[in-house]
Design brief:
elongated, mainly alpha, 5 helices, single chain, 93 residues, 434 Repressor (Amino-terminal Domain)
């Protein structure tokens, strides 16, 4: 059996390069939001209010339930968290 190497877990489990790219972007954005809000040292209720989310929705975000968030939703949440979102489009290797 030939071993394959992947740059990311998403490359290994997603059916297409496009789906893997979307998941990578969602994961990176979600992690950035998690890191930013953890520095606030607020309760989940206060953090949710600050981000314009319900507390259950914030809980999904903090627990990494990536399938519950679109990239668009995560960008909006990141902006509410005071983060700047940038997209880099480059030619594939």
């Amino acid at each position: 059996m030939k071993k394959q190497r992947y740059d990311s877990i998403w490359d290994a489990i997603e059916p297409s390069r496009a789906a893997a790219a979307n998941m990578k972007a969602r994961a990176e954005t979600m992690i950035a939001i998690q890191r930013a809000v953890s520095k606030w040292r607020l309760t989940q209720a206060a953090t949710a209010k600050r981000l314009g989310l319900t507390q259950p929705r914030l809980n999904d975000l903090l627990r990494g339930r990536i399938s519950k968030f679109s990239l668009d939703a995560l960008v909006n949440i990141a902006m509410a968290a005071g983060l700047e979102v940038r997209v880099a489009v480059v030619k594939a290797a």
